[in-house]
Structure formats: structure tokens, C-alpha cells
Fold:
Amino acid sequence: MMKLLFVYNANSGTLNTLFDIGHKIVSPESYECNLCKITHGNFKERNVWKKFRETSDSDLTFLHKDEFEKQYEGEYSYPIVLKLNGEPSVFISTQKLNEISKPEALIELIKERAIY
Structure:
């Protein structure tokens, strides 16, 4: 089973979540976490993404960048998706995530890369 770790370019906590919601609504073009925009609307997880996450054969873990940095070493840009088989390795780079705008495109990319 493939293990993937999704790291958001956002910090954990209620205040940070409220700030992020406000930022996405007021100034979505300057919001810094494209992974958040792909997987979540302003107030909840996107249905197509939730269905994929719940039915995936892969082990999917999600962390905010502050949670990730407490558990793992290494220099990464965010958002990022890492493959966790031994040492973390880049599965989908920040650059690639920032090129995606819809959850369907992210799901397709994950499925394509999971084959190899």
C-alpha cells in the first residue's frame, strides 16, 4: 500500500483556520496554499475530494506545515505531497500543485503516479 503525506501551506489551530477562511474569501488570488484551495471550499472539504480520500487504496495522511515540521526533518516548500516509504520523497512538488486548479486534476495525477 502506498503511503502519501499531504502537507498544507498553512498552520494548524482554530485561529489559523479562521484566518485562512477569511483570506480565501477576501483575497483568494493571494492565498498561499493551493492544496487547500483544491481540496476545500471556503467552509468544507470538496465532495469529489472527500469521496476520493475515503475510497482510496492508498494510506493518505494530512498535516499542516507546523505539524509536519515537528515530526519530520528536511527542507521542503509547501504545499507538497510526499511519498512515505522509508525516507520521505517528493510525490507531487509545490510547483506542480500550484499548476492544478481542480480536485479532479489532482486525483488523476495521484492515480497516474501511483501506477509507477
Notes: The first strand starts at residue 3 and ends at 8. Helices lie at 14-26, 34-39, 47-55, 65-71, 94-99, 103-114.
